[in-house]
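discrete fold record:
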Amino acid sequence: MDTTTEIKAFNQLFTDYYDLFVRFANTYIQDNAIAEDIAVESIIYYWENRHTLASDSNIYAYILEAIKHKCLNHLRHLRVREDVEQRMQDHQQRVNSLLIATLEACDPQELFSDEVQRLLDEALGMMSEKTRRIFIMSRYENKTYPEIAEQCSLSVKSVEFHISKALKILRVQLKDYYMIMLLFL
């Protein structure tokens, strides 16, 4: 056969069977664009291999067999992809559940107050005994400056001086936590 005759034969095959092959593939694939691709690929596959087939081969059945295998491959591929997506979604749900459970169990106040208390204790350890005692009376025991002054036999100005000194140490030692610590104190 010459090239012109082969082109006409291919075009005739394509014209006669293309729509039927697309409908067959689309029955299983349910995506017209993919079904069209499968039909075209199958027709071309037949055309490229037609010389290796027996002369009495059923062309229509051969192409339908090729479409069948391409549809199966496509559907298997979809199933694998869906399985992977489902596993990924299941994994993400487990991760999210773990994060939710962890977050629900988390008590930021307890975690934070323990850390702040540790840092505060370290800073208090750096103060003189008198300054520490006055600061504790003011912040922990909620005593007023006049009450502290009377109890320690000091003037209110001396109490103010010691509180100011304690706050200065706290500001320097706990600069990252100072504002938050004042809320706790």
About this structure: The mean pLDDT is 87. Helices lie at 3-29, 32-49, 59-105, 108-125, 129-139, 145-152, 156-173, 178-184. The chain is about 85% helix and 0% strand. The two ends are 99 Å apart (CA to CA).
